[in-house]
Amino acid sequence: MDKEKYYKYLFLLAACYNILNALIFIVVSLLKDPAIFTLFGVLMPNSMIWLQLSLLLILILGLGYIIVSMDLSQNHGLVIIGGISKVVFFIITLIYFVLGEVGIMVVLLGGVDILFVCLFAEFLLKYNK
Q1: Coil, strand or helix at 31
Q2: Rounded CA gap, 61 and 66, in Å?
């Protein structure tokens, strides 16, 4: 596969990852089932506003990855912002895991983000068009 297709699919995959995770967790938050929150080692919040707003931002970053995939020579700032958000998400989940406030499932989701960060960095360093 040539590098153009590879990078296009990379950003489409990142978009799907963000958008699907955001949509799934928005639905979970609407169900308000404490058992689902327990699966991730967190308590169900009294209000879902902050969770849902955060999830919508994750979804919007996913839309940004679609924009990047449509013209790889443009919008590298979106790649940088997305990468920063993924690193911050992982660090925060790791801190809260160490503090015993979230389960390993949340950290594993952040681990996937770190994989994307590595691939985004490779794109930013090697893609030249």
Answers
A1: helix
A2: 9
Exposed, middle or buried: residue 22 (CB in 10 Å: 0-12, 13-18, 19+)?
buried
* pLDDT per residue as tens digits for the range 19-30: 999 999 999 999
- What is the model's pTM? 0.91
Residue 43 gets which letter from DSSP? P
Task: Report pLDDT digits (tens) over 40-52.
Answer: 888 889 999 999 9
Helices and strands in the chain: count of H runs, count of E runs: 5, 0
Assigned token pair, 78: 């979106």
Q: Tell me how far apart the alpha carbons of residues 122 and 82 are, in angstroms, rounded to a whole number.
A: 14
Q: Is residue 51 a contact partner of residue 29, using CB atoms and an 8 Å limit?
A: yes
CA distance 4 to 71: 10
- Amino acid identity of residue 112, one-letter, is V
Nearest residue to 84 via CA among 121, 126, 125? 121
Q: Is 57 helix (H, G, I), strand (E, B) or coil?
A: helix
